[in-house]
Amino acid sequence: MDDGALSEDWRLAWQGLGLAQPNEALFNQLLARYREPQRHYHTLQHLGECLTALQAAQGLAERPAEVALALWFHDAIYDTRGSGNEQRSADWAGEALASAGAPAEVTARVHALIMATSHTAVPAGPDAQLLVDIDLAILGAEPARFAEYEQQIRAEYSFVPRWLFRRKRRAILASFLERQQLYSTGFFHDRLEARARLNLAQAIG
């Protein structure tokens, strides 16, 4: 997505919540975050891929505008040397929504959706399942894109010794492969599950 398409998606998400779009400063702050130099995968490329995937599967969402806003903020904070990125991103989203006059229940739901992208538990509820499937769609990408993704993740952690990175990366990928199923929704399971398992097996091997 180019900046124009991103701007339109941003506008429609706020419109879908029945809220006036925040001033342009917040939009520009988010774009600047996704362009930070330490990012190689968690960039506007990833955000654009997520938003495009949502467009294709939007009919699965109970509250599509909330899923869209959660995607916008889910990697807003990304510190490769720190922790709590999801919590800090969710808190920022909550502050932005509260400032825009969103009802407390909307703010709480978006906050919970972003926290689901920490991938520490199986997502519950249609919107969380959809959001997590979108975030993990890269695992089922075509081989060339998956290989690029793996290189991008390595670049984000270039400060980690190669032997240690390989050990930890294999453990992370193996944990996904050990799941009974990677994708919770039929839409993504049918389209990506088999290729994702092949990609993961090859990366681990």
What features would you describe in this structure?
By secondary structure, the protein is an all-alpha fold. It folds into two domains: 1-121 and 130-135, no CATH class; 139-205. The chain has ten helices and no strands. The protein has helices at 3-16, 24-34, 44-57, 64-73, 85-99, 104-116, 126-135, 143-156, 162-177, 186-204. It is globular, with a radius of gyration of 17 Å.
Give the fraction of residues assigned to helices.
Answer: 55-70%
β content, as a range? under 5%
Tally the beta strands. 0
- Secondary-structure element series: HHHHHHHHHH
User: Describe the biggest sheet?
Assistant: none
Which consecutive residue ranges, at least 5 long each, have pLDDT under 50? none
**Overall 3D shape:** globular
How far do the termini sit from each other? 33 Å
What is the domain tally? Answer: 2
Total number of helical segments? Answer: 10
Return the average pLDDT rounded to an integer: 96
What Rg, in angstroms, do the CA atoms define?
17 Å
Q: Which structural class do you get from the secondary structure elements?
A: mainly alpha
Indicate the topology.
Blueprint: H1 3-16, H2 24-34, H3 44-57, H4 64-73, H5 85-99, H6 104-116, H7 126-135, H8 143-156, H9 162-177, H10 186-204
Helix pairs in contact: 1-4, 3-4, 3-7, 4-6, 4-7, 5-6, 6-7, 9-10
InterPro entries: HD_phosphohydro
Organism: Ideonella azotifigens
Protein name: N-methyl-D-aspartate receptor NMDAR2C subunit
